[in-house]
């Protein structure tokens, strides 16, 4: 009788353990990113900073950039970084990181058209852990 009770208890524990394992689920983390776009003309381009004078404002805007920053034309085709220099009309797509504006994409424009600041897109990404 004790052997049967031991088998029943062991089988119950295995079933309980398997049930617990199947109940473990991946937790999702939601990351929200807001990309904003400013349009203007480059007034300064240094090794880590782009400063533009917006079309609708006298106050310059300063952005930091990195190797992850993309430089493209209006159709989205990559352009050489050498294209980006003082006096060139651009649209800078950026994200805020604390007090800094981090340029994610710089669109070199052919013509200057006043567009001002626009919220370009919001992206919500769900990651499973």
What does this structure look like?
It is a single chain. The protein has 129 residues and is an alpha+beta fold. It has one domain: OB fold (Dihydrolipoamide Acetyltransferase, E2P). The chain contains 1 helix and 7 strands; from the N terminus they run αβββββββ. Strands 1, 2, 3, 4, 5, 6 and 7 form a 7-stranded mixed sheet that branches. Strand 5 and strand 6 form a beta hairpin. The protein is elongated, with a radius of gyration of 27 Å. The chain starts with a helix and ends with a strand. About 5% of the residues have low confidence.
Q: Would you spell out the secondary-structure blueprint of this structure?
A:
Layout: H1 2-23, E1 28-45, E2 49-54, E3 61-64, E4 70-73, E5 89-97, E6 100-108, E7 118-128
Parallel strand pairs: 4-6
Antiparallel strand pairs: 1-2, 1-5, 1-7, 2-3, 5-6
- Which band does the percent of strand residues land in? over 45%
Number of domains: 1
- Reading off the top of the CATH hierarchy, the class is best stated as Mainly Beta
CATH-derived architecture: Beta Barrel
By DSSP, the count of extended strands is 7
Helix content: 10-25%
Full CATH superfamily name: Copper binding periplasmic protein CusF
Low-confidence stretches: 6-12
Distance between the termini: 46 Å
**Assembly form of the protein:** single chain
**Biggest beta-sheet profile:** 7 strands, mixed
Radius of gyration: 27 Å
Mean pLDDT: 76
Q: What's the tally of helices?
A: 1
Summing up helix and strand content along with how strands pair, one would put the structural category as alpha+beta
CATH third-tier fold name: OB fold (Dihydrolipoamide Acetyltransferase, E2P)
One letter per element, helices H and strands E, the order comes to: HEEEEEEE
Q: Given the C-alpha coordinates, what overall shape results? A: elongated
């Amino acid at each position: 009788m004790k052997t049967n009770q031991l088998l029943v208890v062991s089988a119950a524990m295995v079933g309980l353990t398997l049930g617990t394992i199947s109940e473990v689920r991946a937790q999702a983390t939601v990351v929200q990113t807001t990309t904003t776009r400013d349009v203007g003309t480059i007034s300064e381009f240094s090794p880590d900073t782009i400063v533009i004078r917006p079309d609708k404002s006298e106050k310059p805007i300063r952005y930091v950039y990195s190797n992850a920053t993309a430089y493209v034309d209006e159709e989205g085709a990559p352009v050489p970084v050498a294209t980006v220099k003082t006096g060139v009309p651009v649209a800078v797509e950026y994200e805020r990181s604390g007090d800094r504006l981090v340029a994610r994409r710089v669109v070199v424009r052919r013509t200057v058209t006043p567009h001002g600041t626009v919220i370009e897109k919001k992206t919500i990404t769900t990651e499973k852990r």
